[in-house]
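Please fill in the sequence for the structure shown.

STRUCTURE ENCODING:
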């Protein structure tokens, strides 16, 4: 395996018993886990190819306990890895052998529901779907809906800036979070944003969302909720070629139509999903589009006709329109279950996450097929077509020597391809450890150092989630140095502070 984590600090490991005792004093009862057997469930996250038992797990129940834990770890120089539900597909919650794994699963309460201001205040351990469940009785819902929404926590969504099938129209997590409570590594409790639409000053909330646990530990989240649309209908459209489906996506957006969701699956994913959920997907097509339109009934009817016409111009061979809510949900059932369904095709799969300009979709899919032939590994494509967020699932068998390495190399080439065509390394899964060493493909040294300076402003000792995101983690003192050449500072006219 190509990804390497930082070498454990032996001096910290030698103090393990003392660290465990100090944590037990902060979180009494069953809040500290240190036995080898009980640590096993925490040895990995959604990137299961990598496993590493943590030094100790602590499960606080209050913000005050989180603050005391972080204050202690800062004072003692102990690393901390925050963890929500552990569904991260980029290794964002991968533990370290010399670190405290800070599990936020007991922060599972809905604190406040405010229908007048259309917001909900929750603790970070509340699952994504539970927010919608809490408000749907009054006709509201929470828009971001990752495929793992039944399990993933809102705190993890904030860390990774998660998306979902409805992010095309309603935005990612960052567009739906109004405020957070954050505990810094020094144990200081801060609030960014709140119940107002926009906070004053710098957009530090925008810095926190998507920061992957590198800046602090979120202990409370205020999210926006939306009224359920009057009407929601979906089209299930089959195409004889993936390129035709990709062109249909581009033409739909170019026509000024922004669907609530627009998802694509290729033949392997279609067959796997249909075998798994049996919802009636057509099996004689190479690509399947699911297009959902919502809003007033008259608007939906008009847009359905528009999308259907665009699909026909692009050679669609099958087209179904949901006639009721049950059928709409059935269309989505296969897509929501696509990741586990693809597990039927091979013993293992490696889920990638990159984003490209929509207009390059046909070209990128062709080049991915060529890479599949080159590496001798199958690939099933399931992705958010409307915003160009690809999720290629690379099929391999970890029991076959060298296949994991090949799958990783294949995945790296896909991500390089995304950057090459004007896209980015990730859309919603984050960088974590999976894409860490590919960051220089997208950012130069100056860019990376600037990003690390933000990290240093929050965590000068680099104790929070180290080994993630940055391929080379500089010491904060090094990043603060000023370059002097021939006795002169660069840009001497700029004031220094």
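FILLED IN BY: designer on duty
SEQUENCE:
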């Amino acid at each position: 395996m190509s990804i390497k984590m930082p070498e454990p600090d032996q001096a910290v490991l030698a103090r393990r018993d003392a660290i465990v005792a100090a944590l037990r004093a902060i979180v009494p009862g069953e809040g500290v886990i240190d036995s080898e057997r009980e640590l096993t469930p925490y040895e990995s996250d959604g990137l299961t190819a990598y496993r590493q038992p943590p030094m100790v797990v602590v499960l606080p129940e209050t913000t005050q306990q989180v603050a005391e834990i972080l204050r202690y770890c800062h004072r003692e120089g102990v690393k901390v890895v925050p963890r929500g539900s552990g569904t991260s597909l980029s290794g964002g919650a991968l533990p370290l052998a010399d670190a405290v794994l800070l599990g936020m699963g007991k922060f599972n309460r809905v604190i406040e529901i405010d229908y007048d201001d259309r917001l909900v205040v929750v603790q970070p351990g509340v699952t994504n779907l539970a927010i919608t469940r809490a408000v749907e009785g009054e006709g509201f819902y929470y828009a971001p809906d990752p495929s793992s929404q039944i399990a993933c926590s809102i705190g993890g969504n904030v860390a990774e800036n998660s998306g979902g099938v409805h992010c095309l129209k309603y935005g990612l997590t960052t567009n739906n979070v109004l405020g957070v409570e954050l505990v810094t590594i020094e144990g200081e409790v801060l609030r960014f944003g709140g119940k107002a639409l926009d906070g004053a000053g710098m957009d530090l909330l925008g810095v926190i969302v998507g920061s992957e646990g590198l800046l602090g530990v979120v202990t409370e989240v205020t999210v926006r909720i939306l009224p359920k649309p009057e009407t929601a209908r979906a089209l299930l459209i089959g195409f004889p070629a993936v390129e035709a489906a990709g062109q249909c996506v581009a033409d739909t957006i170019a026509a000024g139509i922004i669907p609530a969701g627009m998802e694509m699956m290729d033949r392997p994913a279609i067959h796997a999903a249909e075998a798994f959920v049996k919802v009636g997907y057509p099996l004689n097509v190479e690509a399947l589009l699911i297009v959902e339109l919502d809003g007033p009934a008259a608007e939906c009817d008009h847009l359905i006709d528009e999308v259907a016409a665009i699909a026909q111009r692009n050679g669609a061979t099958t087209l179904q329109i949901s006639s009721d809510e049950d059928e709409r949900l059935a269309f989505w059932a296969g897509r929501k279950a696509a990741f586990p369904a693809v597990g039927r095709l091979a013993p293992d799969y490696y889920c990638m996450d990159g984003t490209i300009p929509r207009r390059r979709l046909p070209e990128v899919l062709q080049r991915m097929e060529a890479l599949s032939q080159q590496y001798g590994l199958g690939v099933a494509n399931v992705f958010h077509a409307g915003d160009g967020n690809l999720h290629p699932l690379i099929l391999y068998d970890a029991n076959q020597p060298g296949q994991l390495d090949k799958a990783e190399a294949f995945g790296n080439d896909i991500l390089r391809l995304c950057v090459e065509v004007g896209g980015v390394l990730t859309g919603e899964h984050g960088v974590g450890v999976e894409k860490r060493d590919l960051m220089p493909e997208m950012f130069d040294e100056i860019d990376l150092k600037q990003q690390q300076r933000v990290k240093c402003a929050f965590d000068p000792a680099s104790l929070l989630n180290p080994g993630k995101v940055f391929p080379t983690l500089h010491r904060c003192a090094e990043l603060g140095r000023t370059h002097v050449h021939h006795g002169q500072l660069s840009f001497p006219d700029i004031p220094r502070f």
